[in-house]
Specification:
CATH class: Mainly Alpha
Distance between the termini: 36 Å
Structural class: mainly alpha
Number of strands: 0
Largest sheet: none
CATH superfamily: MetI-like
Strand content: under 5%
Radius of gyration: 24 Å
Length: 268
């Protein structure tokens, strides 16, 4: 009997599920390696400067942006549009998504409309938005709002549909009110999917603001990229693209920080 016991392997229980190690050093290492490959490829002539300028030339373009003050001008204009449009689209989308997920009448009326409008490429609506709201800030903010709204609605009511019904029955067995069940069970259980969707909508918002600024803007990262492309200034164009990438990384980091704060219960 003792021999059989010795053959068993003990596996420690991990209530939080699979635990991934945070190897923070890997990302900087990969970035540095790619940067060195880019530098040596451009220096040794393997990469043409007409196709991809040296990293030092892009750095000089950043320096010129900073010295002239254009960096704050363009980034500030894009950030204002992004924050307003994305925030409003996310808030309204969550409210409508919860209404569709919780009320059958609202679902019957709005779900088909959302399904019909969602596949439309939102950038195709920019000319219509310019006619409706003018060529100023309102058309760009509303484009981002519109592009953020529908993915958020679908992700929200989809998350509500996937809430474990046994949890709701458990709340009902404790005589919790409808509002308490919605707040403590439905909202908490759907929050991970809603936050994950925010990463996607943040990327969508950046894509839409660049597309809008390429067409109808004097200030903004999209307008800066458009100007650099028309002048065939590849170093400035790459500087603008890197700024957009940094904006996406910062948005992703902020949403990840929010997830760690709000979803601590997942690791219990």
């Amino acid at each position: 009997m003792s021999d059989k016991k010795n053959n068993y392997t003990t596996i420690s229980f991990r209530g939080g599920g699979f635990q991934f190690k945070n190897n923070y050093w890997i990302s900087p290492t990969v970035f540095i390696v790619l940067l060195l490959l880019w530098h040596f490829g451009s220096t040794l002539g393997f990469i043409s400067n007409l196709v991809l300028p040296k990293p030092t030339e892009v750095l000089i373009a950043f320096h010129d942006l900073y010295v002239t003050g254009d960096l704050y001008l363009h980034v500030g204009a894009s950030l204002k549009r992004l924050i307003l449009g994305w925030t409003l689209g996310t808030i309204i989308g969550i409210i409508i998504g919860f209404a569709i997920g919780l009320f059958a009448l609202v679902r019957a009326g709005l779900a088909p409309i959302v399904a019909a409008i969602f596949p439309i490429p939102k950038i195709a609506l920019l000319p219509l938005f310019i006619i409706w709201f003018g060529i100023g800030e309102l058309s760009k903010i509303n484009l981002i709002l519109f592009g953020t709204l529908f993915p958020t609605i679908i992700a929200t009511y989809g998350a509500i549909d996937n809430v474990d019904r046994s949890l709701i029955r458990l709340g009902q067995s404790f005589n919790l009110s409808w509002f308490s069940i919605t707040r403590k069970i439905v909202f908490t259980a759907s929050l991970p999917a809603i936050l994950s969707n925010m990463r996607i909508t943040a990327a969508i918002a950046i894509i839409l603001i660049v597309a809008a600024e390429l067409i109808a803007a004097e200030k903004g990262i999209g307008a800066y990229i458009q100007m650099a492309g028309s002048l065939f200034a590849i170093d400035r164009l790459l500087a603008g693209i890197i700024i957009l990438s940094c904006m996406g990384l910062i948005a992703n980091w902020l949403i990840g920080l929010t997830e760690r704060k709000l979803l601590k219960w997942r690791n219990l």
